[in-house]
Amino acid sequence: MIDSLLAYITLAMILFSIGFLGVVSRKNIFVIYMSIELMLNAINLIFVSLGRYYESMQPQVIAMIIIAIAAAEAAVFLSLIVVLYRRKKSLNSDIFTILSQKDSHE
Amino acid sequence: MSNFLLAWIVLIPFISSFIIGVMYLYSIKVARVPNFVFSLFGLSAPLLSFLLGFSFFLQMIGNDEIFLYKAYRWLEIDGYDIDMGFMADKLSIFMVLFITFVGWLIHIYASGYMKDDKGYGKFFFYFNFFLASMLLLVLGHGPIIMFMGWEGVGFSSYLLISYYYEDGENVKAGNKAFIANRVGDFGFIVAMVTMFYYAGSNGFDFLNLKESLLSVPVPVLTFIGFSLFVGAIGKSAQIPLFVWLPDAMAGPTPVSALIHAATMVTAGVYMVARFHFLYDLIPHVGLFIAYVGAISALFAAIIATKQTDIKKILAYSTMSQLGYMFIAVGLGGYSVGIFHVFTHAFFKALLFMGAGAVIVALHHEQNIFKMGGMKKKTPLVYFTMLIATLAISGIPPFAGFFSKDEILLTAFSSGEYLLWIIGVFTAILTAYYMFRLLFVVFYGKNYKEDKKLHFLPKSMTTPLVILAIGSILAGFIGIPELLGGENLIGSWLGNWKNSSLHVTHSTEIILMVINIFAALLGIFIAYKKFYMYDMKEVPIFTGIVWNKFYIDEIYDTLIVHKIKQLSIFISYKIDVHFIDKIVMGLSRGFIRSGHYIAKMQNANTRFYAFTMLIGISVISTYLIMVLR
């Protein structure tokens, strides 16, 4: 059982790292969003596997809540992406710079 | 009992000065307050203090009661408690009596002298504040309260000396007085701290210190006594801190009379007498004090013989007389020293006020060689000045004779013949320069008659007469037993004199005759040289004595100049090349680093996410390590 927990956790860590790399390296806002979801679900995986390991229901409940919240969050995020696309006709994250000092500074 | 009235002796002038100050501010900001309102407060405060002091004086006659009033606890530091306390024993009440009385007369005089001054109210504000500080000094029950008065006196004297602040020289003189006093005050503080460290555990007031100092080792006592005396040197203008006193004549003449004759400069003498229980344990420091006093007396007298400014002559004579007092208190004759303080207060105040009257009459002329012939023009001033001059020269039966005779007797009977010789020689010089002043000012010929004399109001002449009577009578409270009298002052202040100081009556008579002879000799020389002095032209003096032995110049080169150079070095080298560089470098560094840090905010969302995640992972790693 211990070995398999380690395997689950390792899998979660790999998923999280892939998500992290996706957030950092990709430009497309959609991909960034998907990477974030990937990281979120990596955490979910840890919760679930820990719940199995300790034979407790609490982590499972938390995982369910996280999934529910992620669904709600997806609605907000997707609508934001639509708004952003309407403004610039592009999904490249690098062109959304109005909150930075880059324009005023240089 | 009525002990709380002690505090009111000090409080009345303080309150009055406060009221006058507020009224003065009102009068310059809103509406003019007539002068007599200021005079009413200013003159009644010293009188009330005098009456209160007198009531305590009456209660003290015939017993040894010490009045002590602790108003409130001022400081509580870990077991060391300092009370705001007032103490009146025979010494302090005696001081209070003549400080308030002579001070009151000087206040009256000032109300005439300052009549046309636009800062009339301000002047009385300072004046009352000064008097209150002096009374606090005298009535404080411990060194700390005394020090508060001590500082108050120094501060208000600074204000008064630079009273005519429009002239830069006067401000400089005020600064000089203040700085020289600060040097002395430092000695006082050091002495106080040492005393507190070694003997402060059983209460830090004079009565307790008297007991607890007995168990302190002698080297420490020597150090304390010496440091205290440094304070006295500063306040009482002895060598080497006397330079401020002649310059302090820049203030109005009543200021000179009050501060530099009757009160402030005697604070040093009073302090030594107040700490007599300390100095009794360390006679070697006492001897040092006596020698400093003797040398100062001689030194000042020599300088005074060549001065031409009437007030400077008097200033140096003050220093010289203070030297006499230190001879007495240094040798353990505290009552003798205080006796001279007492008589000196009368005749020196009179001299200053007479000089002030002459100065006013001649439209602020201070050079004695431009006066002359004042005897006919101001006979009253002449007469009172003559009495004061006789008193300071030591001609019987005027006040100065008895006290000076006692001092020289003390010096002689302690076996310090050198001190005695210096004292007698100084007495000759004193008589000489004082009569030089008198002859030149009042008998000198050829004063240009074209100017009309300035009118002298009654308020200026009446105090002169009262003080003249005082100068005649003040000596009679201390007639030596030899002449069939009783030394009231000695018995009043207690038997402080060393019992070893006994000389035979014949010696005493010889000494007395020598003193009279010395004074007559000085007068005779002055008469020869200056009687009916013909002042066709103002004599121009040169030489080392006229230049006051170049002491000011020596101090300038040795100390003032060095400090100036140091300041210039700090201001132009250290400040520019070091401090400014650090400050400017810091600000430049901030600008530059801000520039670099601003690049972090580069509008790259992924970069933000990256830094955020790095931060989160660092923090969570840390938390995991801690929580383990």
Any overview of this molecule?
The complex is a heterodimer of chains A (106) and B (628). Chain A has a single domain (2-100), classed as Helix Hairpins. Chain A is 80% helix and 0% strand. The mean pLDDT of chain A is 86. Chain A is built from 4 helices and no strands. Chain A has 106 residues and is an all-alpha fold. Among the domains of chain B are: 342-539, no CATH class; 554-627. In chain B, a hairpin with a 2-residue loop joins β1 and β2. Chain B has 628 residues and is mainly alpha-helical. Chain B starts with a helix and ends with a helix. The model of chain B has no long low-confidence stretch (mean pLDDT 85). Chain B is globular. A two-stranded antiparallel ribbon of chain B has the order 1-2. The longest helix of chain B is centred in the C-terminal third of the chain and has 48 residues, at 551-598.
Query: Could you estimate the helical fraction of the residues of chain B in percent?
Result: over 70%
CATH topology of chain A: Helix Hairpins
Summarize the main sheet of chain B. Answer: 2 strands, antiparallel
Taking the sheet with the most strands of chain A, its summary is:
none
Topology summary:
The complex is a heterodimer of chains A (106) and B (628).
Chain A: H1 2-25, H2 29-54, H3 58-88, H4 102-105
Chain B: H1 5-29, H2 35-60, E1 67-77, E2 80-88, H3 90-113, H4 120-139, H5 143-161, H6 168-199, H7 206-212, H8 218-236, H9 244-247, H10 253-262, H11 267-274, H12 276-281, H13 283-304, H14 310-330, H15 334-361, H16 374-377, H17 379-393, H18 399-413, H19 417-443, H20 458-473, H21 488-492, H22 505-530, H23 551-598, H24 605-627
Antiparallel strand pairs in B: 1-2
